[in-house]
Specification:
heterodimer; A: 365 residues; mainly beta; 4-stranded antiparallel β-sheet; 2 helices; 48% strand; B: 338 residues; mainly alpha; 12 helices; globular
Chain lengths: 365, 338
């Protein structure tokens, strides 16, 4: 290991001497497969790079609790977002382990914790709250100008949370959770009585499509997203009604339309009204959703549009595609690679893994 | 009982005892905490509506007393946010707060300015903006310097009467919901019911306790505290009527009762919880500051911060010690997801 590193350093030194500087790539950051925010035992917060063998490759300090991160499509650069209602995001050079830039929301805005890059990585899009107006915004940042804020678009709803780019396009999809909050009331939900979640598609700052479920689903906050190679969007919801959630997972396709996936009542109950993360398998055939409250990951069959099976895991929340199966992370410190129902590998750490496990490079994007 | 049966019974005892303790707790929480609370709310709200038909002038002492009694009754059950309170957004129709963007005064001002005839019917009024309904809207009508005097006196009177009657109808519907079936859901969990086991019922009640404490800490205390550099006394709950501290006391009193009943099986834990509640309530009493105006003064502000810390200490005990006894997942993500 040490020898290999030295060898590489010599190689780089040789290149430098020759006046030839290669552009750093994700390999220079120890080739992490995933990024994840975590809490350390001492109560401090970090953003970690996690390798294919589920080892922590780097752990960079964050000033406060993180949520998700966005990985630049080509450079070893990631943006770690504060958990809502945080106002910072940190651009991290994952190869050198240094902070490149700090993004701060403009006055009257806070981040929701998610972001996405344009296909070439030149722009970063962030979900934000214009909290005096109670309207969702998409912040636009130019990565080539040191992450300068260059524009702001309406998200097409209230409480935009997750944002993803459809593969092979510049079309963004946004989960407008529908829940209005204001920093002066912490995380108190202000509009459950009137909430209207939606899924919006945005291109060049314009909402090109707005998807809502029927009235009976008005209290199902559309919160987290995953995209399949064919552009199908899976969404995980969080139920705000006073009773048992009817279902918590849906899919939308620009041509095929929207569909809530079938699930037996006992299985939807197990989720306790809460989906923390959602991911497609690499082949797009399965959808995994997690519920830390229920201590369970559930796998859906995307083709049949229905529930498939449960995998019990206490405090599980992060999930991402891995090989034929999924990687999942828990607040108790475990990361597990699971293929169908069989666990392949498990790593334990003293870190409490936070909400999301973010793939560094979506192979199909 | 023969010895063989006895030993078998002893083996089963811990599991059975645990289930019994939980279903006994549910029974007493229903009989002594939930039902009397909603009965009190429906009764005092009806009295408010009756009083308003006689005295609709915002300066009427009778009206203010009736309003105060009904609002007290609401705050004392405001943590019980499941079942009948959530049907048709009844709880929000009674309590639209916090109102960060001033939707309540805006909605009332626009009704008054337009002399909107919707106030003529209680049924129609239930269709107006939810921000113009309930106890917090009523507070503006009775106590806000501008809105209590705004518009035509006759229109203002009709508004007071209709908002009161709407509150009475909503609270009656909640109480009826509890009487006509939801009580049974808690008492007899079943495979196709709202709750499938007594453990699920206990977890619902636990959630009511923990979110009630969170609301009191984050919102009832956190909003006026704001930050050290920017305290926000005008954001205190019901500060116009000087009820802010009273609401904290009422909520702590109700939550203390619920906590004691949930911890009933564990005398040591119950005592620890009770001591924590006692600390917070004594600190609140010593503040002697009905509307939390003192948050703006650096010296006295500290006392409100200490009170908030005491409520957070109750929350920690509830989360770390009571939760696990009721089978509530206590993980990093489970407790505080996003």
């Amino acid at each position: 290991m040490v020898a290999a590193k030295t060898g590489r350093r010599h190689f780089l030194a040789g290149l430098l001497a020759a006046g030839f500087i290669p552009k750093p790539s994700w390999a220079d950051a120890g080739s992490p497969r995933f990024l994840a925010a975590a809490a350390r035992p001492d109560g401090s917060y970090v953003l970690c790079g996690i390798s294919a063998d589920l080892q922590v490759r780097f752990a960079l300090p964050l000033p406060d609790r993180g949520h998700a991160a966005a990985a630049h499509p080509t450079c070893p650069e990631a943006v770690a977002f504060a958990r809502r209602p945080g106002t910072f995001a940190i651009v991290i050079d994952c190869a050198q382990g240094i902070e490149r830039a700090v993004l701060s929301t403009p006055a009257g805005r806070h981040f929701y914790g998610h972001g996405a890059f344009s296909a070439d990585g030149s722009l970063l899009f962030t979900t934000e709250n214009d909290y005096e107006a109670g309207e969702g915004r998409i912040g636009v940042w130019d990565t080539r100008k040191g992450y300068k804020r260059v524009d702001e678009w309406p998200s097409g709803g209230v409480g935009p949370h997750d944002i993803k780019r459809l593969p092979g396009t510049e079309r963004l999809v946004v989960a407008n959770g529908g829940i209005d909050t204001h920093p002066d009331s912490g995380r108190t939900k202000l509009n459950i009585a009137t909430m209207q979640p939606s899924l919006t598609y945005i291109e060049n700052g314009r909402v090109v499509q707005d998807v809502v479920l029927g009235t009976a689903w008005r209290k199902n906050s559309i919160r987290h997203l995953a995209v399949a190679p064919d552009g199908t969007v899976a969404f995980g919801m969080q139920w705000q009604g006073g009773d048992v959630a009817p279902a918590l997972v849906g899919v939308h396709h620009l041509v095929k339309g929207v569909r809530v996936l079938d699930v037996p009542p006992d299985d939807v109950r197990r989720m306790q009204g809460y989906v923390g993360s959602v991911a497609f398998s690499n082949d797009g055939a399965r959808i995994a959703v997690t519920s830390p409250r229920g201590g369970v990951m559930q796998v859906y069959d995307a083709k049949a549009s229905r529930f498939s099976h449960n995998i019990a895991e206490p405090d599980v929340c992060g999930v991402a595609a891995m090989g034929q199966g999924f990687a999942m992370s828990s607040g108790l410190g475990g990361i597990r690679h699971i293929d169908d129902r069989i666990p392949y590998a498990t790593r334990h750490s003293d870190l409490q893994w936070d909400n999301h496990l973010v793939p560094v490079v979506d192979t199909f994007v | 009982m023969r010895p063989t049966y006895l030993s078998f019974a002893l083996l089963l005892l811990p599991a059975l005892a645990q289930a019994d303790v939980q279903s006994d707790a549910v029974e007493t929480i229903l009989g002594d905490h939930i039902l009397p609370g909603f009965e009190q709310l429906a009764g005092t709200a009806q009295n408010l509506a009756n009083t308003a038909t006689e005295h609709c002038d915002p300066t009427s002492q009778d009206l203010k007393v009736a309003y105060g009694a009904a609002f007290d009754a609401w705050v004392s059950v405001s943590h019980l946010r499941f079942g009948p309170t959530e049907v048709d957004d009844r709880a929000f129709a009674l309590a639209f707060w916090p109102d960060s963007r001033g939707a309540t005064p805006r909605a009332l001002n626009s009704l008054i300015a337009a002399q909107d005839p919707v106030v003529a019917s209680v049924a129609d009024y239930s269709e107006v903006s939810i921000a113009a309904r309930g106890f917090y809207a009523m507070e503006f009508l009775l106590f806000d310097d501008a809105i209590s005097r705004a518009g035509d006196a006759q229109y203002h009177c009709a508004l007071v009467q209709t908002v009161s009657a709407d509150i009475a109808a909503t609270t009656q519907n909640i109480y009826a919901g509890w009487q006509s079936g939801f009580t049974q859901e808690l008492r007899q969990p079943s495979a196709d019911g709202t709750y499938r086991s007594t453990a699920e019922v206990s977890q619902e009640l636990f959630k009511a306790l923990s979110t009630g404490l969170q609301f009191t800490s984050d919102t009832r205390l956190g909003r006026p505290l704001g930050s050290f550099d920017r305290p926000r006394p005008k954001r205190a709950e019901a500060h116009r009527s000087g009820r802010s501290a009273q609401h904290v006391m009422l909520s702590l009193t109700a939550l203390r009762d619920l906590a004691a009943r949930l911890a009933g099986g564990d005398a040591e834990l119950a005592a620890r919880l009770d001591a924590r509640f006692q600390t917070a309530m004594s600190q609140l009493k010593a503040l002697n500051d009905p509307s939390f105006a003192s948050v703006a003064d650096p010296q006295s502000r500290l006392k409100v911060e200490v009170l908030q810390q005491s409520v957070d200490a109750i929350r920690a005990t509830v989360r770390d010690e009571l939760g696990p006894t009721l089978g509530v997942a206590a993980g990093f993500n489970a407790l505080d997801g996003d």
